[in-house]
Write a structure and sequence with these properties.
The complex is a heterodimer.
Chain A: E1 2-8, E2 11-18, E3 21-24, E4 29-30, E5 36-38, E6 46-50, H1 54-60, E7 73-77, E8 82-83, E9 87-90, E10 98-99, E11 102-108, E12 124-132, E13 134-135, H2 147-150, E14 156-164, E15 175-180, E16 183-189, H3 197-207, E17 215-217, E18 232-237, E19 241-248
Parallel strand pairs in A: 6-17, 8-14, 9-19
Antiparallel strand pairs in A: 1-2, 1-5, 1-14, 2-3, 3-4, 6-7, 10-13, 11-12, 11-17, 12-14, 15-16, 15-18, 18-19
Chain B: E1 9-10, E2 13-14, E3 19-23, H1 27-33, E4 50-54, E5 59-61, E6 65-68, E7 75-85, E8 101-111, H2 122-125, E9 131-139, E10 150-155, E11 158-164, H3 172-180, E12 190-192, E13 201-202, E14 207-212, E15 216-224
The chains are: A mainly beta, B mainly beta.
């Protein structure tokens, strides 16, 4: 079962795939571009992983000031950073390095507190695709990755479909890839997760109660590269979905940078 | 384990449940680090506001029990002013920042002692109930100067700290301006000014109270977690 949340005709609807696009619960069949797509479930706490693919750690090794890692690198995101598919993400004028991150998003379906590895997958409701943008110009080495780099409005894209866990026999064998303007720029496989899904649920639920609707963004493989205003960025995961987003500049948000003025 | 009740309805305001906290917002915290601020892993003093997200599982309310892990020893009791946002706040100027504030609430920024500021310290700080809020939201009109509020922290009914919100790296208006530059805040969201430079410690079995002049008094009781997990599936 795949479900989406969309806005159409003045209301928010649940929708399922249809050969001509999607079908709303009330029976209406619509083209994909006739609706506004929202994150596909009511999102609770957003838990993100950094450095959870070995090849991505090696890719960043030169700029990391500490590379040894004795526990998962976890950070949280707020709700303002979330947007749905086919939306627009702002690239501030003047930044040098803004990149996509294709990630498998694991949606919790059942409260989990001190859940061991063996039972962990029973707490997973399903999956979706995340594009977890970062602006490296704003990274600082204090509580890194800091919110200014990773928690900006509209910089965390989720969707298009929420896919039931029952329909994903092995979430640890899914190919991921990102395309910018149709060209493949990032490829990986969830088989290469350093901390797999049961490990993450065991780790997190040891100190926090995971609740239905919480989502774990499991990290991204190597292959991050800069994107510019106007780029179409597609993050896709085998069997889960294809998530489209477009980068836009400051002018779309009514802000402009005076010539020669560096961003703060 | 009892789930702490979420204090979303804190009269006279309904909170959204979204809470963001400023870290290292007292100059004393950077002074205490000394030259380490310029050394790896930090390499340079922070430029933008240093922030953390306090997710819903961390919230608790006045009078709640807060569970402390077995073997944790003492935990830090950070007293913070909570700024309750009253209107949609996106790219708010410093001059207009106080206009977006609905009121103020006391917050506790609890944590296991922290060794480093390099990585987000979620396992130490983002534990169930570690961000108590309450007892009520005091309307902004009743708080003439949020940057000069005195507070005191009591552990086991003994005052262990007296402090003030004055002298922070970013006061209330500047913090709102610099945060909303990249993160829109919504009505009912709470932004914490942050804990002071030094924080008292408390341990399981002790009661903790944080009182701010004009805002009331927030109590929690620290309780040892059961040694055997209650919900192991």
């Amino acid at each position: 079962m795949r479900t989406a949340r969309v806005a159409y005709g003045g209301a928010i609807h649940h929708a399922v795939p249809h050969e001509r696009g999607l079908r709303l619960a009330d029976g209406r069949v619509l083209a994909e571009d006739a609706v506004a797509w929202l994150p596909p479930f009511e999102v609770g706490t957003v838990i993100a992983l950094g450095l959870n693919y070995g090849n991505h750690v090696r890719e960043l090794a030169r700029e990391l000031t500490v590379t040894s890692q004795d526990e998962p690198l976890v950070f949280f995101k707020g709700r303002g950073t979330l947007i749905g598919p086919r939306g627009f993400t702002q690239r501030p004028d003047g930044v040098k390095f803004m990149h996509y991150e294709c990630e498998l998003a694991v949606v919790i379906g059942k409260t989990a507190r001190k859940v061991g590895r063996a039972a962990a997958m029973h707490h997973v409701a399903g999956y979706t695709v995340c594009n977890d943008y970062a602006i490296r110009d704003y990274l600082e080495n204090w509580y890194r990755p800091n919110l200014r780099a990773k928690n900006r409005d509209g910089c965390t894209v989720l969707g298009p479909w929420f896919v039931d866990a029952a329909d994903v026999p092995d979430p640890h064998a899914l190919a991921l890839r990102t395309l910018v303007n149709g060209k493949v720029v990032q490829q990986g496989n969830t088989a290469d997760l350093i901390n797999d899904i049961p490990a993450l649920i065991e780790y997190l639920s040891e100190f926090m109660t995971l609740q239905a609707g919480d989502v774990i963004l499991t990290g991204t493989p190597e292959g991050v590269s800069n994107v510019d205003a106007g780029d179409e960025v597609v993050t896709e995961i085998e069997g889960i979905g294809r998530l489209v987003n477009t980068i836009v500049g400051d002018e779309a948000f009514g802000r402009s940078v005076a010539p020669g003025r560096e961003p703060q | 384990m009892a789930t702490p009740h979420l204090p979303f309805d804190v009269p006279p305001y309904r909170l959204s449940g979204a809470v963001y906290g400023a870290l290292l917002n007292d100059p004393a915290q950077l002074v205490a680090l000394g030259d380490a601020v310029h050394q790896p892993p930090y390499r340079a003093p922070p430029q933008a506001p240093v922030l953390e997200v306090k997710p819903r599982h961390t919230l608790s309310g006045d009078g709640d029990d807060v569970f402390v892990p077995v073997g944790a020893g003492e935990i830090e009791i950070g007293a913070s002013l909570g700024i309750v946002v009253g209107t949609v706040a996106c790219r708010v100027s410093m001059a207009q920042a106080l206009d977006v504030v609905a009121g103020y609430v006391i917050a506790g920024d609890l944590g296991l002692p922290l060794g480093s500021h390099y990585r987000p310290s979620v396992r130490l700080k983002a534990r169930d109930g570690f961000c108590p809020l309450g007892p009520r939201v005091v309307p902004a009109a009743e708080v003439p100067n949020p940057d000069a509020l005195v507070f005191e922290v009591s552990v086991a009914d003994e005052v262990v700290q007296r402090g003030t919100t004055a002298g922070r790296i970013r006061g209330v208006a500047r913090l709102i301006a610099e945060v909303t530059e990249f993160m829109t805040l919504l009505p009912g969201d709470v932004l914490l000014l942050g804990r002071p430079g030094a924080v008292p410690l408390a341990r399981a079995g002790q009661s903790v109270a944080i009182a701010f002049a004009g805002l009331g008094r927030l109590h929690v009781r620290l309780v040892a977690e059961a040694p055997v997990a209650g919900q192991r599936a």
